[in-house]
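Sequence in, structure out. Go.
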Amino acid sequence: MRRTLRGVRRAGALAMSAARVCYVRLAFPDVTITGTVLGPGVEVYAGKGAVVVLSGVVVGRGCQIIAGPGAFLRVAAESVGPHSVIVARDHVEIAEGSLLAEMTVVRDADHARSAGTPLRAGLHRTAPVYIGPDVWLGARATVLRGVRVGAGATVAAGAVVTRDVDPGSTVGGVPARVIRVGEGAA
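Output:
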């Protein structure tokens, strides 16, 4: 009986995900979604001229995936944990096999502050973000603009990554510092 109920629940969840995928495809024709499961409350937004590709990823409950006008955003990670935020104003790529834990943040832009310009002017500095294959981002980790996280790297829970991470390395802290050197490090 329990096995049957689990099967029914799973089928219902997949049907609801399919409905969410259809909605996103209708609302944003430039979004490409293949082999992807969208959890409840997931928000996907693509500005004018933005290209968004979600490929083979399970996106957890309450995530936000946002691409500003003209931006490129590709997520091919294995999974994106609940309540995570991925924002591209220019260019963000998350490669195959990566895992993002709950409440992670990946963004390629910061607010640009200058004397005499109000914050509401909405000025930003952008730089591409690339997260390589088989990367683990721990719970509440943040990856900021201009960062390249190498293949097989680990970002500890709560870390704020402001500089590149060598392949296979482990970083942690605020700002993130090397905890363990990977095989691809110099």
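Check: Residues 161 and 177 are 8 Å apart (CA to CA). The domain at 2-180 is CATH 2.160.10.10 (UDP N-Acetylglucosamine Acyltransferase; domain 1).
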